[in-house]
Automatic annotation (TrEMBL):
Signal peptide start and end residues: none
Entry's Gene Ontology molecular function annotations: hydrolase activity
Protein name: Alpha/beta hydrolase
InterPro entries the record matches: AB_hydrolase_1, AB_hydrolase_fold, Epox_hydrolase-like
Length: 318
């Protein structure tokens, strides 16, 4: 009897998840164009004047989000004077992916899209988990990266993990069962308080969840992709971090000393102490969402790199 009840509950949750997934996708439709790359189809929004002086700015979001978290207000502010490329990472937002992907493969996909857009050099701006992607792009495709701006970005291994739930969700059978039954209804209850905690000690902007389409994360396929990205993150930075001293392009790390999600000391400070052409901006009392807390400062640093950039490719020494 108990087993039958459990099966019935799971079936009801699965049906609710299917219904709510369709509703979320209708509420937050795609707003960009799609580019096919090997292993994925990436959703890209191209904003701002195409003939703007200097390299375009590419904005790449972190975990548990999509490019909406980089568009408001940062992307829209930059697009007033610069060409801005916003990319849903593979498996997130409206981008798809056919398999679990390492940061190296995700970096290659982004580089492929920039090639299709005929963008030879760009300023790469990354947030949080995407810090590892920006650094991997700078290492593997230095001719494409005119400068790198890391906003509270991950760069090095850290003590601890990324949460028990992410580890459980990435296990065979059990993970998909959870993702396609309880994750979405539970996530609807926890999305707002969870996002508020990421902004702390700053307040979350009004209507942020709706404006940035964050609830799309709760769809099973995206939730699984996000969990996989998180549980494989430490191994990726462990592998690539010994090579950061080879980078020759400008690297700016902007981080808050009140960030409890990505440690400024472990990641940003150590990165800037390692790269030859680095600048650290440590913001007192600022938390993890740097692009929302100090967007004018971030825009200013990006524009400084643009104004100082030249047309010569900057190669790593590898």
């Amino acid at each position: 009897m108990i087993l039958l009840i459990l099966v019935a509950v799971l079936a009801a949750l699965a049906l609710f998840t299917q219904f709510e997934t369709r509703r979320l996708e209708q509420r937050f439709p795609s707003v960009g164009q799609f580019f096919d790359v090997t292993g994925a189809r990436l959703h890209v929004l191209d904003l701002g004047p195409r003939d703007a002086a200097g390299p375009p700015v590419v904005l790449v979001h972190g975990a548990s989000s999509n490019f909406g978290s980089m568009r408001i207000p940062l992307g829209d502010m930059l697009a007033q004077r610069h060409r801005v490329i916003l990319i849903d990472r593979p498996g997130h937002g409206w981008s798809t992916r056919s398999e679990n992907l390492s940061p190296a493969l995700q970096a290659k996909m982004i580089d492929d899209v920039l090639g299709q857009l005929q963008i030879e050099r760009a300023i790469i701006v990354v947030h949080s988990l995407a810090g590892v992607l920006g650094l991997k792009m700078a290492l593997d495709y230095p001719q494409r990266v005119a400068g790198l701006v890391s906003l509270a970005g991950v760069a090095y291994p850290w003590p601890g993990g990324v949460g028990t739930y992410n580890a459980v969700v990435t296990t065979p059978v059990v993970g998909p069962l959870l993702a396609y039954t309880i994750t979405l209804p539970l996530g609807l209850l926890l999305a707002e308080p969870g996002t508020r905690s990421v902004f702390a000690p700053q307040a979350m902007p009004a209507n942020y969840l709706a404006q940035s389409a964050i609830p799309l994360l709760l769809r099973p396929r995206e939730f699984l992709a996000n969990a996989w990205d998180l549980v494989t993150l430490k191994a990726a930075v462990t592998e690539q971090s010994p090579y950061y001293a080879e980078l020759r392009m400008p690297v700016v790390a902007i981080t808050g000393d009140a960030d409890t999600t990505v440690s400024s000391e472990i990641h940003s400070r150590r990165l800037i102490e390692t790269v030859p052409n680095g600048k650290l901006i440590l913001l007192p009392g600022v938390g993890h969402m740097v692009q929302n807390a100090v967007p004018e400062l971030v825009v200013g640093e990006i524009e400084r790199i643009i104004s100082e950039s030249d047309t010569k490719p900057k190669a790593a020494s590898r």
